[in-house]
Amino acid sequence: MALALLALPLITAAHHSRPSPYGDHVTVHARVDGATAAAAAPALRTTGRAVQAYDPETGHPRWTYSREGSRPLALLPAPGHAIALWSDGLVTDTARADGGAVRWHRAIPDAAPWLRTPAAHGATGVLQPLDPRGRMLAVVTPRRIAAYRSADGDLRWVLPARGGCAFEPARSTRRGDALLVAQPCEDAATAWTAQLIAVDDLGRIVPRRTPLGNELPGGAPGDVRTRAEKVLARPR
Predict the structure, then answer these.
(1) For the segment 74-133, what is each residue's pLDDT rounded down to a tens digit?
(2) Mean pLDDT computed over 61-65
(3) Which of 84, 95, 102, 230 has the smallest CB count inside 10 Å?
């Protein structure tokens, strides 16, 4: 019995010393209260092998987030969120105000080898917000566009590239609520309309679609927005 009691502190210490399965290291440099966090969201930047949040007025760092064996390639600021793409093909979301939590990790299939090539253009255009408030995130890679809910990292929809074609994240732009992504094809005879894809937070924009909603479980039923469809339909 005495030996068991003596072993308890050792077991507890071992439990707390276990490394994060994702190699996460978060250092909080300055504690902030709720009012401070709400008044001024920290600015974000990448510094070598880490993501750093800092006070926009003083320039003092609030928190730093790094991962063992990886470095941040792209950073997407959103209200309450600091979303980063890492060189090992992982996407993470950190609580932007205080760095108090890394909310979720999502591995992007086949991303790591491609990100090491010149064709990735340094991950330009891979992370894309799908609505003004940053509630939905698109991760664009040559083979697919995947959409995640920012609140919990839930995968909401996936759009594969057409056969013989590939998405080019660096060649993307916005038109109203729509994200337009180039999808060049090997066959030169492919119509240009098939080499450009339009998506929004509810998926690919096509006539008379019936997409699923993106609300959190237990939320109010979502409406099917058609504003982006109307924008694309305007005469050019």
Answers:
(1) 999 999 999 999 999 999 999 999 898 999 999 999 999 999 999 999 999 999 999 888
(2) 95
(3) 230
Tell me the residue type at 220: A
Spatial separation of the C-alpha atoms in residues 69 and 136, rounded to whole Å: 28
User: What domains sit in the chain, N to C, each tagged with a CATH number?
Assistant: 14-107 (2.40.10.480), 110-236 (no CATH)
On the 0-12 / 13-18 / 19+ scale of CB atoms within 10 A, 147 is buried
Q: Which two tokens stand for residue 66?
A: 């790094």
Residues facing 94 on adjacent strands: 82, 102
pLDDT value at 17 more than 60: no
Distances (CA, A) of 161 to 2, 143, 158, 186: 63, 5, 10, 12
- Beta pairing partners, 148: 137, 155
> 82 has which bridge partners?
77, 94
- Of 60, 65, 20, the closest CA to residue 46 belongs to 65
What number is the average pLDDT over the span 140-164? Answer: 95
* 81, 99 Cβ separation under 8 angstroms: no
